[in-house]
TrEMBL record:
Species this chain originates from: Nephila pilipes (Giant wood spider)
Taxonomic classification: Eukaryota, Metazoa, Ecdysozoa, Arthropoda, Chelicerata
Keyword Signal annotated: yes
Protein name: Cuticle protein 16.8
Keywords: Cuticle, Signal
Top-rank taxon: Eukaryota
Keyword DNA damage: no
Length: 124
């Protein structure tokens, strides 16, 4: 009988301990990370750091094997997210939509449109 009582007490102790774990509250910490990857297709990179108080700053981008590139620099803080994009991607032009600055070095060449011929039944 004493063994059964000890088992019940042990089970109650385990259940009680699992429901009353001490949870530590970690304060935000400054951080920093980054990487660069290069291969025969081109390169990619990303770098970011935060101060632990809601201010984050960083950049990411790529360059392909033809030299086409895009670089994005950004800041996120109490004023929101702001980014500046630098690129030479075909079809881009200087813009400033939605607080994003886009700087393009692309040559303004006419875009070629290919006609698509459809075979089969037309639904109307």
């Amino acid at each position: 009988m004493i063994a059964k009582i000890l088992i019940v007490i042990a089970v109650i102790a385990v259940v009680y301990a699992s429901h009353h774990e001490h949870h530590e509250h970690h304060h935000p910490q400054p951080y920093k990370f980054g990487y660069v990857v290069k291969d025969h297709h081109g390169s990619q990179h990303r770098h970011e750091h935060g101060d632990g108080h809601g201010h984050v700053q960083g950049s990411y981008g790529f360059t392909d094997h033809r030299g086409v590139h895009r670089e994005v620099h950004y800041v996120a803080d109490h004023q929101g997210f702001r980014a500046t994009v630098k690129t030479n991607e075909p079809g881009t032009a200087n813009q400033d939509p939605a607080h994003v600055k886009l700087h393009s070095d692309a040559h303004h060449a006419p875009l070629h449109h290919h006609e698509h011929h459809h075979h089969g039944h037309h639904q109307g």
